[in-house]
Amino acid sequence: MGYVYEEDTYKLVFEDPKMSGLEVHAIELTVEETLQYTELMWIDMTKSTARERIMSRMQFMVDHIPHWNLEDKEGEPVPVSVDALLKRGKNFHTAIMAAWLKEVVGISLPLAETNNSFSDGSASSDIDPSMIPMSTLQDGELPEQV
Questions:
Q1: Fewest Cβ atoms nearer than 10 Å: which of 55, 91, 124, 140?
Q2: Model-level pTM?
Q3: Closest residue by Cα to residue 13 from 1, 28, 2, 23
């Protein structure tokens, strides 16, 4: 009898208290799916519209959410679908996408700001700004060696 691998299932956690009570379950990505999603994130912007890129990412995410407990105003279950996301506000979509990226893909949003300073306020770079040439070179002229 051999080993059968079962992918992990994640219960998404939401930062926004307004999302309290919403349960969204997502399944682990395979390595191939992770590569596919990475490619979706880096689609050549000159070859597709913003809508096409967003819709592709939404469909990819929805394909990895087998269940949520979302209901409409009449108390009827709302099927997991891109259409369901499109009919909700931007904040709803953003909250689900951020939680999905964090739990399933391993990316936290918003990305932390880069801080290039030490606690005393000095720059953390090893580059001495006085070593950066600031003069304009003429055609064919080589920079002066320091």
A1: 140
A2: 0.66
A3: 23
